[in-house]
């Protein structure tokens, strides 16, 4: 049984017994938000990330989800992408395509991935332009209170350094406010060239989920969620800056990742 609670301003926390339980809960949640979004505005705009997140979504290609999810209404985006060829093993697009998107009936024209034949700067500009067109035609909703898209669901992983998307600790990309997509040529984690959603876009989503597992994430999880004496630690812990202004935030983790949370320690 998962241990769940809601923190007064850090969202809902779900600490799962094991990865199987986490994976079932995550796909149930995705299917639920998919259905609600399609009812509300006729489409489901979902944003993926790389890393182990995609493997936790694996059950979506199995019964009953493969049949109950309305794949034709899905529009797929990435919170960040490594600027490499789409056929390269480092590509987040390839990871999602091989393990999920090629196995369900999402229309290829609904998959909004980067142009892998241009420079990193051009890839960021083109990707933002494509999203702006989709906001203009109302496929992607617009935020009511900021100049940002309002994605139905943004799924993020988290590194042990607390990075989310390709927003790394103390990196200038964290402070970009006027662009929806920015680029890096010096990512601390290889490959160095990446594009990433900026914080205003992440924080304008209707639902944001952070998934992190394993003991190596425990300290970052504690710094991202627990009440801390030093608020200025934020720029060194990007996950702490995930704070949807008018949306829901849920943290999915296993026990090792949750082991340093104040609440979890006290409940043991
Ligand atoms: C990358 C990765 C990275 C990943 C996190 C969490 O672009 O380098 O995609 O951002 O999402 O490090 O990864 P794990 O869940 O696999 O630990």
Summarize, please:
With about 270 residues, the chain is α/β, with parallel strands linked by helices. It has helices spanning about 20-40, 55, 65-70, 90-100, 120-135, 200, 220-225, 255-260, 260-265, and strands at about 5, 10-15, 45-50, 75-80, 80, 140, 150, 155, 180-185, 195, 205-210, 250-255.
Task: Provide structural commentary.
This protein is of the alpha/beta class. It is built from 9 helices and 12 strands. It has helices at residues 19-41, 53-56, 65-68, 92-99, 120-136, 199-202, 218-225, 255-258, 262-267; strands at 3-7, 11-16, 44-48, 74-78, 80-82, 141-142, 149-150, 153-157, 181-184, 194-197, 207-212, 248-254. The strands form 3 sheets. Strands 1-2-12-11-8-3-4 form a 7-stranded mixed β-sheet. A 3-stranded antiparallel β-sheet has the order 5-10-9. β11, α7 (218-225) and β12 (248-254) form a beta-alpha-beta unit. The mean pLDDT is 95. It binds 6-phosphogluconic acid. 6-phosphogluconic acid binds next to loops.
Characteristic terms for this protein:
268 residues, alpha/beta, seven-stranded mixed sheet, 9 helices, globular, binds 6-phosphogluconic acid
Write the layout of secondary structure elements.
Elements: E1 3-7, E2 11-16, H1 19-41, E3 44-48, H2 53-56, H3 65-68, E4 74-78, E5 80-82, H4 92-99, H5 120-136, E6 141-142, E7 149-150, E8 153-157, E9 181-184, E10 194-197, H6 199-202, E11 207-212, H7 218-225, E12 248-254, H8 255-258, H9 262-267
Parallel strand pairs: 2-12, 3-4, 3-8, 8-11, 11-12
Antiparallel strand pairs: 1-2, 5-10, 6-7, 9-10
6-phosphogluconic acid binds next to loops.
């Amino acid at each position: 049984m998962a241990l769940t609670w809601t923190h007064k301003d850090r969202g809902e926390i779900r600490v799962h017994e094991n990865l199987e339980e986490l994976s079932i809960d995550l796909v149930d949640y995705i299917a639920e938000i998919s259905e609600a979004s399609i009812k509300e505005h006729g489409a489901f705009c979902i944003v993926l990330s790389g890393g182990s997140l995609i493997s936790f979504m694996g059950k979506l290609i199995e019964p009953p989800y493969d049949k109950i999810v309305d794949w034709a209404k899905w529009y797929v985006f990435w919170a960040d992408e490594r600027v490499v060829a789409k056929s390269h093993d480092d590509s987040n697009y390839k990871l999602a395509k091989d393990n999920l998107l090629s196995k369900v009936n999402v229309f290829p024209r609904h998959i909004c991935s980067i142009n892998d034949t241009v420079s990193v700067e051009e890839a960021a500009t083109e990707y933002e332009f494509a999203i702006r067109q989709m906001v203009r035609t109302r496929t992607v909703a617009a935020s009511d209170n900021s100049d940002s898209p309002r994605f139905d669901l943004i799924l993020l992983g988290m590194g042990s350094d607390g990075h989310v998307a390709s927003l790394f600790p103390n990196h200038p990309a964290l402070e970009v406010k006027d662009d929806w997509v920015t680029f890096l040529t010096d990512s601390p984690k290889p490959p160095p060239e990446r594009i990433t959603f900026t914080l205003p876009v992440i924080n304008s989503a209707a639902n944001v989920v952070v998934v992190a597992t394993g003991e190596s994430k425990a300290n970052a999880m504690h710094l991202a969620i627990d009440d801390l004496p030093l608020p200025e630690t934020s720029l060194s812990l990007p996950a702490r800056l995930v704070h949807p202004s008018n949306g829901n935030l849920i943290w999915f983790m296993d026990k090792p990742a949750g082991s340093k949370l104040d609440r979890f320690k006290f409940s043991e």
